Amino acid sequence: MTQKESALTIATAEDSQHALDAYINQIAKLVRGMRAQRGMTRKVLSQHSGISERYLAQVELGKANMSVSLLWRLAEAMNVGINDILPYDCRTCIEHDPLQQLLRGLNPEQERRAYDLLRQEFAGEPAANGAQACRAVALIGLRGAGKSALGRLLAEKYGVPFVRLGAVIETLGGLDMQELLTLHGQKAYRKLERQAIDYVLENYERVVLEIGGSLVSERETYDYLRRRFFTVWLRALPEEHMSRVMAQGDLRPMAASQKAMDDLKLILSEREPFYSEAHAQVDTSGRALEACAEELIEKCAARL
């Protein structure tokens, strides 16, 4: 082999390694993001995947060369498809797939509308905007957004029940939320979550429903919710979420405040595209409870 050929071989090997490293880093980002969407701690994910917390930390830092078996176990533990934690480059198939080519050019709002139309046409389900005729409101958002306080004020204003979906799930499952997730995992919990929505629909004609923050990461359940409830995203800045949670008596974030804030920002960034699909939004940052309640009551007037 000539010196030139040898140099070319080394360069090709280095390029290949760089590509592999980049791919592993993409997987690490997807795993971190999916875990954040699902609201799972690394400890819980470790318990249900059978993978040590230490190794999971290496996975999420892009420092582990993962096997297909390991990725499969991670996906199963989070109740998602393995494709959800694998990067996908559709450039090789675009020219042969006109649907993918069309979808690639859509913005997030157009994607949502296209998804609703396809579900309506091929799954025989009503479009999401059918929720405009419903008599039920669902409040979504992260903990600390004001769902409980504002939900109760909204329900009181219109004389309808205020229901926490989490409480319904605990009743149906016979355990508290943390025990359900720890003992039975994401798959069982998400099944109960869907059953709890059906329970509310069957037992309340008009209702204000508080939804757990991670429900939006369950695509089919979230679409189901949006078709049957008028959904409102109560949004706030990460700093306000944190301060309100601590004001409620949860002082755990103080132990590692920067890490807690980083985790909170990651969760919010991962869920924001889903939250933004709600029918309406109310920003509660830096505002008095009464002002937020007035805006929420006005936006829900036609529904309740």
Descriptive report:
- This protein is α/β, with parallel strands linked by helices.
- It has 2 domains: 3-85, 434 Repressor (Amino-terminal Domain), CATH 1.10.260; 126-299, Rossmann fold (3-Layer(aba) Sandwich), CATH 3.40.50.
- The chain is 60% helix and 7% strand.
- The chain has 13 helices and 5 strands.
- The chain has helices spanning 3-38, 42-49, 53-60, 68-78, 98-104, 108-122, 147-158, 165-173, 177-203, 219-228, 238-247, 257-275, 289-299; strands at residues 136-140, 162-164, 207-210, 230-235, 280-283.
- A 5-stranded parallel sheet has the order 2-3-1-4-5, with helices on both faces.
- Helix 8 crosses helix 9 (177-203).
- The longest helix is centred in the N-terminal third of the chain and has 36 residues, at 3-38.
- The chain is globular, with a radius of gyration of 22 Å.
- Mean pLDDT is 82; it is low at 90-96.
